[in-house]
Amino acid sequence: MLKNDIIRDIGLALVLLxxxxxxxxxxxxxxxxxxxxxxxxxxxxxxxxxxxxVAALALSLGLPASIAAGLLLTVQVLLTGAMHEDGLADTxxxxxGGFSPERRLEIMKDSQIGTYGVLALILTVGLRWLALSxxxxxxxxxxxxxxxxxxxxxxxxxxxxxxxxxxxxxSHSVGRPSTAAWASGLVLALLLSLLLIGSTTxxxxxxxxxxxxxxxxxxxxxxxxxxxxxxxxxxxxAELTGLLILxxx
Length: 249
Known about the structure:
Layout: H1 3-17, H2 40-60, H3 65-80, H4 83-97, H5 101-109, H6 115-139, H7 143-151, H8 154-161, H9 170-174, H10 179-197, H11 200-223, H12 228-248
């Protein structure tokens, strides 16, 4: 891969998955969005590194782990624009609020949030906060970087393995990455994670893969494929899974 291609793909991944202030990218670059999927783990690193820094600062000032965990999650949400949380809420509303694939997709596209979406956010954010607080006490803030990196691999995996459930939307506009693209992202994520949490990477990665496959099977059954909301939900569920595995590993 050429240096210019690497810069292009990283820029596209940051534009797609973060709300970081970035220069305007050339329009021609957006024809390559699907192949930029290998760089999704770097987007996770970009939004979680400053979040971990804020949490570490909070700890150094004597604030408790629960506050540090809350600040870490807050910074993550700010830097991603809560796009993954929004996807989780929309997916929960659609999957359990409709009785046909068409109706489920219609609900998922609606900007309003329903009971299932609210409960999904309360439960997952609450569990992430509790688990992260315990993890910080046990191992500090930096293992969260590995989880952010690994959980971003779930999205290109589903993009490559499942068809688009609708002919519009963010996921459809990005396209389906090649096997080489998402596999390269997986290798990159594993290498970076090994540096951060060592061999526990493989246990965490296996657990995340299992939950991602479960989300994929559910999405195929409910709506016949994947959407951007489903991809966001997979990231959130994978990150929570990783937190729980790290606590017991």
